Automatic annotation (TrEMBL):
Belongs to the major facilitator superfamily. Monocarboxylate porter (TC 2.A.1.13) family. It is a multi-pass membrane protein. InterPro entries: MFS (IPR011701), MFS_dom (IPR020846), MFS_trans_sf (IPR036259), Proton-linked_MCT (IPR050327). Residues 1-23 are annotated as: Disordered. This is Major facilitator superfamily (MFS) profile domain-containing protein. GO terms for cellular component: membrane.
Length: 469
């Protein structure tokens, strides 16, 4: 019995011991599982934190500083390109009166074709620029643009035939100006964020400076040194500034690739054709084409309009000069306001004032005072397209798709010259008792059309009225 009791107790103790041991082992396994999963959670959290840090660092690496020495040098280069491009048009009158005055009655038409070649090259070669930039890189394209621009100006000084100007001033200079302008347009957003519209406003103001100042400078040089040296001096000045730009400007970091990667790109990699499937962008291309066409009409016709009402040529010239000066201030102030309220909102606001100035002032302007009032107001608000075009494109497409977007918008700009020629032909055949009414209605209705399209785009992006867009 004692033995049985011993065995029974021993078995009981063994069972207790086994039970206790298995519980201990089970707890150990449970603890190990908890530690394993806890370690996995910690690793996952660390991975997420590292990912956030890497994303933040990447954003910081690609961060856009508001200005800096390099950024403002880019802006200065853009002003120079605009300044010189506007100044080139001054030479047409000089060549017509002094150089090719004995070459026939259609000399004005032949010289006008130089400006057409320049306009077509400046706006129509955006696709060529995009291909070269994607294959060769930003800096090499800048160098090519500098060579074309400066060579075109310098060789234009040696032109003895009109067709020489087609090649030098029209195609060569126009190609260089396109490459420089396109590069600066897609580079500026890299340097500016909060002041992006202001930067583009200052660049666009270069045309106002050129239209108001450079005619007097070039006229003085033409009288003292001749037309040849006028071109050459402009060419040498452009070399100095453009070389500085080539040394300072760099392409966006996300586009810096190896030579093999650049050379093996396909057309779909260079052009993002998906932008054409964006309804907002298609609407913006339509609005941009109309806006550029209607902006040019008053500046083109106002000198003739003034002389029709008995004013002198100097009065007509002063109206254009005042319009260009107001353009200078209007584009910069528009840039400041667009940084605060949004470029699309500002385009709606300024285009509305442009339309009202045509309907309410220009329609009844039959004396110098009313004409001057119109040019002060229209000059201030009418030229904001050149300030807002790049930033509206960025707002709709984003920075990475900006090169393709700008190329397409500039290509659409070529169409705008057809509108101006069409209006000119309609007005010349018009039997309206009020002269130039075709131009007045075309400009006013055109800006009204732009306002409607921009409001449509605004509410497609965000339906709230008070949102910065």
């Amino acid at each position: 019995n004692n033995n049985d009791y011993y065995v029974e107790n021993n078995n009981h103790d063994t069972m207790i011991s086994d039970s206790t041991g298995s519980d201990s082992v089970r707890r150990n396994f449970d603890n190990q599982d908890e530690a394993f999963y806890h370690k996995e959670d910690i690793q996952q959290q660390q991975h997420e934190q590292n990912t956030i840090k890497e994303t933040k660092k990447k954003k910081e690496d690609n961060a856009i500083a508001d200005g800096g020495c390099a950024g403002w040098l880019v802006v200065l280069g853009g002003v120079l390109v605009q300044f010189i491009t506007i100044g080139i048009g001054v030479m047409q009158a000089y060549y017509e009166q002094h150089v090719f005055s004995n070459d026939g009655s259609n000399i004005r038409f032949q010289l006008g074709f130089v400006s057409s070649c320049l306009f077509a090259s400046l706006n129509g070669l955006g696709a060529v620029f995009q291909i070269l930039r994607s294959i060769l890189g930003t800096r090499i394209v800048l160098v090519i643009g500098t060579l074309f621009l400066s060579t075109g100006l310098i060789t234009a000084g040696f032109s003895t035939q009109i067709w020489h100007l087609y090649i030098t001033q029209g195609i060569c200079f126009g190609t260089g100006a396109c490459f420089m302008y396109m590069t600066l347009t897609i580079i500026v957003p890299q340097y500016f964020c909060r002041k992006r519209n202001l930067a583009f406003g200052i660049i666009a103001a270069g045309t106002g400076i050129g239209g108001a100042v450079i005619p007097f400078i070039m006229t003085t040089i033409n009288k003292t040194l001749g037309s040849g040296w006028t071109y050459r001096i402009l060419g040498f000045v452009s070399i100095i500034f453009n070389v500085i730009i080539c040394l300072v400007v760099k392409g966006p970091r996300y586009q810096q690739q190896t030579k093999i990667e650049r050379c093996t790109k396909k057309l779909n990699d260079i052009f993002d054709f998906q932008v054409l499937k964006n309804p907002n962008f298609v609407l913006w291309c339509l609005a941009a084409t109309v806006q550029l066409a209607v902006y040019a009409s008053p500046f083109f016709i106002i000198p003739t309009y003034a002389t029709f009402y008995g004013l002198s040529d100097s009065h007509g010239s002063s109206l254009v000069t005042v319009g260009n000066i107001m353009n200078f201030f209007g584009r910069i102030i528009c840039g400041l306001l667009a940084d605060k309220f949004g470029p699309i909102n500002m385009n709606i606001f300024f285009s509305s004032i442009s339309a009202l100035s045509c309907f309410l002032i220009w329609t009844f302007a039959d004396n110098y005072g009313m004409m001057m009032t119109f040019m002060v107001i229209f000059g201030f608000v009418g030229g904001i397209y050149f300030t807002l075009m790049p930033t509206i494109t960025v707002t709709i497409l984003g920075v990475e798709k900006l090169p393709t977007g700008i190329s397409i918008v500039l290509l659409c700009n070529v169409i705008s010259i057809l509108f101006t020629n069409m209006v000119s032909a309609i007005d010349s055949n018009s039997t309206s008792p009020q002269p130039f009414m075709t131009y007045k209605m075309f400009t006013g209705v055109g800006f009204s059309f732009v306002v409607i399209i921009m409001i449509w785009i605004k509410f497609r992006i965000n339906k709230k009225i008070d949102v910065k867009v």
